[in-house]
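To: structure subgroup
Subject: Chain for Friday's discussion

All,

I'm putting the inputs and outputs inline so they're searchable in the archive.
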Amino acid sequence: MKTLNYLFALLIVMSFSTISIAQSDDELNISESVKVEVYYFHNTRRCATCNAVEDVTKAALNEYYSDQLKSGIVKFESLNLEEDEGKAVAEKLNVSGQSLIIIKDGKQKDLTNSAFMYAKTKPEKLRGKIHKVIGTI
């Protein structure tokens, strides 16, 4: 029974240390004036869903954060992975393919799966997810 308790305690300690390591890996340095960075990485050839991800993301940012976009507190960039600038930023953020990434408070959140799942069929759901991740600024 003691062995089982020790194993259980060890499992709990290991899970908490893994969580804290994962959180620290997500921290990135961003400019003081920019509070949220949104990146959409794409290839040169794009399908309707790829275009929809960018369009819905822009629409969500304009709907919820238009003032912050104008003032530079929120930054949106659409980057081609086949061009030098896109490759450089993707490498910095450890992005290897088409992705929708949001960075807030130095933490990186990947919305790629939701973006490609909902952009064409349920754009309001993707807008809601973007709004939830960014929250209030």
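Points worth raising on Friday:
The chain is about 55% helix and 20% strand.
The radius of gyration is 18 Å.

D.
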